[in-house]
TrEMBL record, chain A:
It is an enzyme of class 7 (translocase). This is Phospholipid-transporting ATPase. It comes from Chanos chanos (Milkfish). GO terms for cellular component: plasma membrane; trans-Golgi network. Its cofactor is Mg(2+). One of its GO terms (molecular function) is ATP binding. NCBIfam families: ATPase-Plipid (TIGR01652), ATPase_P-type (TIGR01494). InterPro entries: ATPase_P-typ_cyto_dom_N, ATPase_P-typ_P_site, ATPase_P-typ_TM_dom_sf, ATPase_P-typ_transduc_dom_A_sf, HAD-like_sf, HAD_sf, P-type_ATPase_IV, P-type_ATPase_N. Its main location: membrane. It catalyses: ATP + H2O + phospholipidSide 1 = ADP + phosphate + phospholipidSide 2. Residues 1256-1273 have a biased composition (Low complexity). The gene is atp8b2.
Automatic annotation (TrEMBL), chain B:
It holds the Pfam family CDC50. One of its GO terms (cellular component) is transport vesicle membrane. It is found in: Apical cell membrane; Cytoplasmic vesicle, Secretory vesicle membrane; Golgi apparatus; Membrane. Its main location: membrane. The keyword ATP-binding does not apply. Coiled coil: none annotated. The lineage of its organism: Eukaryota, Metazoa, Chordata, Craniata, Vertebrata. Keywords: Cell membrane, Cytoplasmic vesicle, Disulfide bond, Glycoprotein, Golgi apparatus, Lipid transport, Membrane, Transmembrane, Transmembrane helix, Transport. One of its GO terms (biological process) is phospholipid translocation. Belongs to the CDC50/LEM3 family. It comes from the Eukaryota. It comes from Chanos chanos. The chain crosses the membrane at residues 47-73, 332-354. Residues 1-31 are annotated as: Disordered. The gene is LOC115809089. This is Cell cycle control protein.
Length: 1352, 369
């Protein structure tokens, strides 16, 4: 039954109190939320905290225990309308005057249904208990009375101080007190919370971080006053009162339950929120219950049927009234009225209810159960599908909800994330062009063969090479070995100009942590070609050049940003030469080249075009030699710009611009953003299935467009790709309007016939636009009046011309386009396009777009994504699909289906979805049919039995008809039926269309089924009536007795519906055979048993049909009657179906027929399939390369956010080990030390941290946190005390803008990340102090720390 | 769907697998490659092609029409005679009797109807009484009986089921047999006389046993007290149904046909499905092969008119009928078979024409894409 599942949501207020009782003494947080306005927690003071009755850390996601299970579960189940209805019927049946059926006809199915559901609930709950127990019994170390004790998680109380060790889960929401790492820093992974896998930094308050060891912590008695429990993951607001001081607390100080401690030896935290109050639990809200459109239709139909039931009841009650008055009153000498009945009206009233009881089977109780069972079966088939199993990640597909399957067959819009969904988020260095020579182009062979070419083996001559890197063109390696200067310089750029970090776990085993995968790919490429980036300090970069360690002094990082589209570093090599290395988008870089590069530029440009044509992401590389004077001069200007308080950004940009001039071009790189396997093919097939695919990505426009091309969403055959990029309402409206005008133009030129209509639309358009120029307030009003009618034709026209256009819209334009007055316009335009790409969108916008389509298009939408930023969209869409096994599991948790490869989507939709839809539709059609055929016989009989609500059948038959005699064959059909084999549905994607158009089960089909059911009931009643009223047995006994009539009709009914299911079943497996024949067998077995003398002798009153079966079924007349009825019922259906098949065959019929005839020609399909294959392979790309490569050239390979340069130069994000390594390396680099000494005079060596060398820069505390972008290596002029103060100031002010834990990856959030850097920078000043403290408290890293201080 | 999206186990996410102690032997979660799980079960996939549907129609037609003709002929060979003796008309001999509406007139009203048979009735002849507009299938009527009591249960004998109301007790004594069905037992007596051409009235022997279902007579209906033949003693303490003239143990003198196992009673208790029905009353056994059971000629039906039906506009009939392998006269079945057979055949022809003219015969080659 669907319903019990959704009860919790629907009956939320009612159920919850009950659940609270089960939740234990502490009660629910929700109860308290009203009361708790702020939370006061005193560390190490359980008695004090007890007063507030905070929830314990024991979580209960289970709903029942052994005692409460039965009452609570029954209570929940009876909140379901259907169950209550049947309960009501049951009560009606207990009234003797009304009871037309024995009570058990209702109670047996009801109990069956309730127990099936109860068993399911119990199993679910059992697993929840199990997982609860597992979590509750996890061990954690709690500081009790100054001693660390092992405690189960559930015994952790608010106010306890617990110790966490590396890789442990955080047990509750903790205030970080101290950590083994310096400065009270600790690293956490928040994948479970927000799905982001990158590590995040948390830091304790400086006052508490000094409380290193348990003894001190045991003395800690600070009191935290903070906000009450809430579900905001990115916010925390509180104050710590300790030793008469106030310290502000924010999210940076919190460790939330669900995080994992990483790279941190251990840390201590104070429990603030426990168990159900934790943010994780507060966020695990009830999932929104999704219903399928079939569900909704079914509910409507059930309501209609109820109406129909009441109508029939009324008709029959009127009949009763008339009959009782005209006949019954006179017949009283034989059949007096029951005592309470004194006139015909009362009798009619009672009769109404009696008929409600016997006709209730038109809405069978088994409907919902059967639907659930079928969906469950379909879900299992999805889980079991080997072709949706990913070997690499060892993940099978999973249907996480079992209620949406058939909607998978009706999807019209797919909203897809890009990164991790379409692409693997793996970048590979594919090709490059160095000094006009293109490398990496393996001789033009079809893609299939390239794979056979062995990749280069780097390990032979380069022990540091990354084994996973593969490159096929050995000429490049030879060029490196030959020592071509340009090639060397090329790789030098790659290994120097980046913001990646390296980690060397053991000698030679380098791991790069790059901000963006592109950068990682480039650095890795350089590594394999002998330019190994080994380590960096804030002011140096150590590189192993062809086996020789070289340390460059990093003078400046000219960081990347969106406008600059390039980044540069200025380094001094050991020889003292200063050089600027730059990489960036070719468009910007080519403008800044020295004029002498013209020839090289042309060649490189050609190469770039080629790469872009292949859908590769490109970057151009260049360098510039700087003289010492140039550098000094510029550094001065730069410092000025950096120090400026107003327009700092602009000034910095200008300064950067100044030096990035007259560069010498080195070449270009091409990186392949690896698509997931089979993405273009999948998209092509889904497009053929008339599913529209929209890509919604947070990525940049260029990247998104690039991917659009490489996955064949955008092709060069397209008439036009509209790019909407406006920043204002006006411009966006203008761009949208222009796009539509262009479409109209092309439509007009193509199809003159539609001139008139399109003219009309054009007018509507311009009319609308007239208002668009006015202010927004004016706009909405007239629009309602005017454009509502004309919008109808335009959509149809727009839809008719679709197929040649694509729309690319950026996030800021989308913000305007999604406003109430423009959304319609936007939607019309977008829907007219074949492909829509929205880039730079926030998670919320993703959801809004989905919502928009959902609302206006009345179409089934599917959202697919892998990251936390897709959660909102996944939840909003009708169906949410999560890609598992990549980023966190947040998307998967929110999804309805999950699998690990985008290409499985085609199977999910075209095979499973299509079948589910087909099966469900066939099931419903048949189900309503069989119940009408069954029930309506009573209606006809009413006219012959004085409308007395006498049933036609034996009551046992009524009881068992739905649950035994007819349930299994239809279930088997609903679960196993196939119209065409799976490979055909992929071969002919058009087979998917009936689902989208909702052709197989709609109101019309429903009425046809009902009509057929009623027709059958007429036949089933009147044929036996005609025959039996006169017939006699061969021994002379009349056949027209009630029991014979009942048996005859029932047998005829069972046979007719069995024949009908046999006709409906298209795929006769052994199971179908077994069920169909088994049902018939069961019917006769049960019939004869029920009518046997054995049962009669035990219960003479209950089994009074004694001998009827034998007496009736031994009569040839009865069998002739049954045969007659069957033929009359089935022949018209057969004829009708044959005609439909013969004259207007559906595609599926044709395919099926073809299959049957075994004509293996399959010409059209085969061609299509091959065509698809071709499109997927490299052959299809040739046209594009020649045609319009230029338009795609801007796909530069930068995917990361700005602000990392400064993080590096500040040294904040460096792990001690890498610093140590750097210092170690630096000892061997005399030149580096020389350089250092040169600069040293300006500094106070004692206070300067080891990494901070170079020119002085303004104190970061002065700079506003959000805009710090200083990239010069900055030593601190300020004293540690000052900077500590700065950190305290900066921390609270950061609270609002800082969203590191948020679910969003919006640009805002990115800037938040940037500000985090600023804080860290501010904290940097007293690193030395922190290092000393950590050295004292923890045995791990101090030697290195000391070493690093010594090095200075 | 679970009430909450949070599952504590999922808090572990995929890390649990990686950090687990035995993670070296990662079990493949690849689904089994069985035909069932991969939905590749071998299956028969029928399709409605002209090759199967059209022959089916012809075959149905060709089977049904002969059967129908056979049935029709058989039915026509059956002789049936029906006479209404309700006495609605003033001219009817039973008019006077029908005027008394009460059950308990002390003097039985008798009337006799003369009729003649045009054709001799060969073999066994079955004599039925028929009632019209009598709602034996009314819900309240149907359930107004106690099968335990009728099965000889001694407890139910004195404690009839509540279903029997209002015919459960009379004068504080339980009614046996209780209920509306038993109470309204048909109690007309019908006798048949053959009038010789020379005027002698020969009573025709009517056999009153063997008219009920075997199971009814031997299993379902039993007298209380087992084989005790003294029914009077057994039914002591019970009351006769209100409308009855005599108690149940005086229905017949034959102990094998008395009490609850009286076959007239059993036949009545097998309620009819429709308001117009007939019930087997007597059997006229065939004497020998030489003479017909009922030769053609004149007959008299002597009716002891006890059963009032005029109050509710009911009718009473007496029916004489012979029987064949398929039972009594039943023209409907034959006609229906002929009709359906013809329609199917005709439909087959029409479909054939349509198929040939408009049918999509080359539908294998035009799969659109």
């Amino acid at each position: 039954m669907t319903i019990p599942k959704e009860i919790p949501e629907k009956w939320f207020p009612i159920v919850l109190p009950l659940k609270r009782k089960t939740r234990g003494l502490k009660g629910s947080p929700k109860l308290k939320r009203g009361a708790e306005e702020e939370r006061k927690v005193k560390a190490n003071d359980r008695e004090y905290n007890e007063k507030f009755q905070y929830a314990s850390n024991c979580i209960m996601t289970s709903k029942y225990n052994i005692i409460t299970f039965l009452p609570v579960n029954l209570f929940e189940q009876f909140q379901e309308v259907a169950n209550t209805y049947f309960l009501f019927l049951l009560i009606l049946q207990l009234i003797p005057q009304i009871s037309s059926l024995s009570w058990f006809t209702t109670i047996v199915p009801l109990v069956l249904v309730l127990s099936i559901t109860a068993v399911k609930d119990a199993t679910d709950d059992y697993f929840r208990h199990k997982s609860d127990n597992q979590v509750n019994n996890r061990q954690s170390q709690v500081l009790i009375n100054g001693v660390l004790q092992k405690e189960k998680w559930m015994n952790v109380r608010v106010g306890d101080i617990i110790k966490l060790e590396n890789n442990q889960f955080v047990a509750a929401d903790l205030l970080l007190l101290s950590s083994s790492e310096p400065h009270g820093l600790c690293y956490i992974e928040t994948a479970e919370l927000d799905g982001e896998t990158n590590m995040k930094v948390r830091q304790s308050l400086s006052v508490t971080s000094e409380l290193g060891d348990p003894n001190n912590l045991a003395q800690f008695n600070g009191e935290v006053v903070c906000e009450p429990p809430n579900n905001k993951l990115d916010r925390f607001c509180g104050t710590l009162y300790w030793r008469d001081c106030k310290y502000g607390l924010n999210n940076q100080n919190m460790l939330l339950r669900g995080c994992v401690l990483r790279n941190t030896e251990s840390c201590y935290g104070l429990v603030i929120f426990a168990g159900p109050d934790t943010k994780l639990m507060q966020n695990s809200g009830r999932t929104k219950f999704k219903r399928t459109s079939i569900d909704r239709l079914m509910n409507t139909l059930v309501l209609w049927i109820f109406g129909f039931l009441v109508c029939m009841g009324v008709i029959l009650a009127v009949g009763t009234a008339v009959w009782e008055r005209e006949v019954g009153a006179l017949f009283q000498s034989y059949l007096p009225w029951d005592p309470p009945v004194d006139n015909f009206l009362v009798s009619a009233f009672l009769s109404f209810w009696s008929y409600v009881i016997i006709l209730n089977t038109v809405v069978p109780i088994s409907l919902y159960v059967s639907v659930e069972v079928i969906r469950l079966g379909h879900s299992y088939f999805i889980n079991w599908d080997r072709r949706m199993f990913c070997n690499r990640s060892n993940t099978p597909a999973e249907a996480r909800t079992t209620t949406l399957n058939e909607e998978l067959g009706q999807v019209e819009y797919i909203f897809s994330d890009k990164t991790g969904t379409l692409t693997q988020n793996i970048m590979t260095f594919n090709k490059c062009s160095i000094n006009g020579h293109a490398y990496g182009e393996v001789i033009d062979t079809p893609r299939g063969q390239t794979k056979k070419v062995e990749p280069l083996d780097f390990s032979a001559w380069n022990p540091l090479a990354d084994r996973d890197f593969s490159f096929y063109d050995h000429t490049l390696l030879e060029a490196v070995k030959l020592g071509e200067p340009a090639v060397h310089e090329f790789f030098r750029v790659l290994c120097l100009c980046h913001t990646a970090m390296s980690e060397e776990k053991s000698e030679g085993e380098l791991v790069y942590k790059a901000q963006s995968p592109d950068e990682g790919a480039l650095v890795t490429a350089a590594r394999n070609f002998g330019f190994v980036f080994r380590s960096r300090t804030p002011s140096t970069v150590t590189v192993q050049e062809l086996g020789r360690p070289v340390t460059y002094t990093l003078l400046a990082i000219l960081d990347f940003n969106n406008i600059r589209k390039r980044m540069s570093v200025i380094v001094r090599n050991p020889e003292g030469r200063i050089r600027l290395y730059c990489k960036g988008a070719d468009t910007v870089l080519f403008e800044r080249l020295h004029p002498c590069n013209q020839d090289l530029m042309n060649i490189t440009s050609d190469h770039l075009n080629e790469y872009a044509g292949d859908g590769l992401r490109t970057l151009a590389l260049a360098y510039r030699d700087l003289s010492e004077e140039q550098w000094e001069e510029w550094a001065e200007r730069y410092r000025g710009a950096d120090r400026a308080e107003d327009c700092r950004e602009d000034r910095l940009a200008a300064a950067y611009e100044e030096i990035e001039q007259d560069m010498m071009l080195l070449g270009a790189t091409a990186i392949e953003d690896k698509l997931q396997e089979g993405v273009p093919e999948t998209i092509a097939i889904l497009t053929l299935a008339n599913i529209k695919i929209w890509v919604l990505t947070g990525d940049k426009q260029e990247t998104a467009v690039n991917i659009g091309y490489s996955c064949k969403m955008l092709t060069d055959d397209m008439t036009e790709v509209f790019i909407v990029n406006g920043h204002t309402v006006q411009s966006v409206r203008e761009e949208l309007r222009r796009a539509r005008e262009r479409m109209m133009e092309s439509a007009r030129s193509r199809d003159g016939g539609k001139e008139v209509e399109s003219q009309g639309w054009g007018e509507a358009c311009s009319f609308g636009n007239g208002f668009g120029t006015g202010d927004a307030a004016n706009w909405t009003q007239p629009k309602e009046k005017s454009s509502a009618p004309p919008t109808a034709p335009p959509t149809s026209i727009l839809e008719s011309i679709s197929g040649e256009f694509a729309l690319v819209i950026s996030g800021h334009s989308l913000a305007h386009a999604l406003e109430a007055d423009m959304e319609r316009e936007f939607l019309d335009t977008a829907c007219a396009c074949k492909a829509v790409i929205c880039c730079r969108v926030t998670p919320l916008q993703k959801a809004l777009v989905v919502e928009l389509v959902k609302r206006h298009k009345k179409a089934v939408t599917l959202a697919i994504g892998d990251g936390a930023n897709d959660v909102s969209m996944i939840k909003t869409a009708h169906i949410g699909v999560g890609i598992s096994g990549q980023e966190g599991i947040q998307a998967v948790l929110a999804s309805d289906y999950s699998f690990s490869q985008f290409r499985f989507l085609q199977r999910l939709l075209l095979v499973h979805g299509r079948w589910s839809y087909l099966r469900m539709c066939r099931f419903l059609c048949y189900f309503f049919y069989k119940n009408f055929a069954f029930t309506m016989v009573h209606f006809w009989f009413g006219f012959f039995c004085g409308f007395s609500a006498q049933t036609v059948y034996d009551q046992y038959f009524i009881t068992l008809y739905n649950i035994v005699y007819t349930s299994l064959p239809v279930l088997a059909m609903g679960i196993f039926d196939q119209d065409v084999p799976e490979q055909r549905s992929l071969e002919y994607p058009k087979l998917y269309e009936p689902g989208q158009l909702n052709l197989l089960f709609n109101k019309r089909e429903f009425f046809i089924c009902i009509a057929q059911g009623i027709y059958t009931s007429v036949v089933l009643f009147f044929v036996p009536y005609g025959v039996l009223s006169q017939a006699t047995q061969s021994n002379g006994t009349p056949l027209a007795d009630y029991q014979t009539f009942a048996v005859t009709t029932a047998t005829a009914l069972v046979i007719v519906v069995s024949v009908q299911i046999a006709l409906d079943t298209g795929y006769w497996t052994a199971i179908n055979h077994f069920f169909v024949w088994g049902s018939l067998g069961a019917y006769f077995t049960i019939l004869f048993t029920m009518h046997s003398s054995v049962l009669f002798n035990i219960f003479p009153k209950q089994f009074h049909f004694l001998g009827s079966a034998h007496n009736t079924l031994s009569q040839p007349v009865v069998w002739l009657t049954i045969a007659l009825a069957t033929v009359i019922c089935i022949a018209p259906v057969l004829a009708f179906r044959f005609l439909k098949l013969d004259l207007k065959p559906q595609l599926s019929d044709t395919v099926r027929y073809t299959q049957l005839v075994r004509q293996k020609k399959r010409k059209p399909g085969g061609r299509a399939g091959r065509g698809l294959g071709g499109a997927g392979s490299s052959g299809g790309g040739a046209l594009g390369r020649l045609g319009r490569g230029g338009s795609r050239r801007s796909g530069y390979a930068f995917a990361h956010q700005e602000g990392f340069g400064e993080l590096i130069t500040s040294g904040k994000n460096m792990r001690l080990s890498s610093l140590a390594l750097a210092t170690f390396a630096s000892r061997h680099s005399a030149s580096w030390i020389d350089t250092l000494r040169k600069k040293k005079h300006a500094q106070n060596a004692q206070n300067t941290p080891p990494a901070a060398t170079g020119d002085s820069s303004p104190a970061p505390s002065i700079a506003p946190p959000l805009s710090t972008s200083s990239s010069l290596t900055g030593p601190q002029d300020t004293t540690p005390e000052e900077s500590r103060q700065a950190s305290l100031d900066a921390a609270p002010s950061n609270g609002l803008g800082d969203v590191p834990l948020s679910l969003m990856k919006s640009p805002e959030a990115e800037s938040g990340g940037c500000s985090l850097g600023a804080v860290q920078e501010a904290l940097f000043g007293w690193r030395g102090v922190g290092a000393r403290i950590s050295g004292a408290s923890s045995p791990g890293p101090p030697p290195i720390a000391e070493e690093s201080s010594n090095a200075v | 769907m679970m009430a909450s999206s949070y599952n504590a186990k999922e808090e572990d996410g995929h890390h649990s697998g990686a950090s687990g102690p035995g993670s070296s032997t990662v079990k493949s979660r690849k689904p089994d490659n069985t035909a069932f799980k991969q939905q590749r079960l071998p299956a028969w996939q029928p399709i409605l092609t002209a090759g199967t549907v059209l022959p089916a129609f012809f075959v149905i037609g060709l089977i049904f029409i002969p059967i129908g003709i056979g049935l029709y002929v058989t039915s026509n060979n059956i002789k049936e005679f029906e006479i209404d003796y309700t006495g609605i008309d003033m001219s009817s001999p039973c008019f006077n009797c029908s005027q008394s509406f009460s059950w308990n007139s002390s003097v039985p009203c008798k009337c006799s109807l003369a009729f003649s048979l045009d054709q001799p009735f060969e073999s066994n002849v079955f004599m039925y009484y028929g009632l019209s507009n009598f709602y034996q299938n009314h819900r309240r009527y149907v359930k107004s009986r106690d099968d335990s009591q009728l099965n000889g249960d001694s407890f139910s004998l004195t404690n009839p089921s509540k279903e029997c109301e209002p015919y459960r007790t009379s004068e504080n004594k339980p009614i046996a047999p209780c209920g509306a069905i038993a109470n309204s037992l048909f109690n007309d007596t019908l006798e048949l006389f053959y009038i010789d051409p020379n005027g002698t009235r020969t009573p025709i022997p009517l056999i009153k046993k063997g008219i009920a279902w075997w199971t009814d007579k031997h299993v379902k209906f039993r007298n209380p007290g087992g084989n005790n033949s003294n029914l009077t003693a057994i039914f002591q303490g019970t009351s006769k149904p209100v409308n009855w003239r005599k108690p149940v143990y005086e229905l017949d003198t034959d102990p094998e046909n008395n009490g609850f196992i009286n076959e007239d009673f059993i036949v009545w208790m097998r309620t009819a499905a429709l308001p117009t029905f007939r019930k087997l009353y007597r059997i006229i056994q065939k004497k020998n092969n030489m003479t017909p059971t009922l030769p053609r000629g004149n007959y008299t039906l002597e009716v002891t008119y006890n059963y009032p039906v005029r109050s509710f506009e009911g009718r009473k009939r007496m029916i004489l009928s012979t029987i064949s392998w398929m039972g009594g006269k039943n023209p409907f079945l034959g006609i229906a078979y002929i009709t359906v057979g013809s329609v199917c055949f005709f439909l087959g022809v029409v479909l054939l024409i349509i198929h040939h003219k408009y049918g999509n015969r080359n539908n294998s080659s035009d799969i659109p894409n």
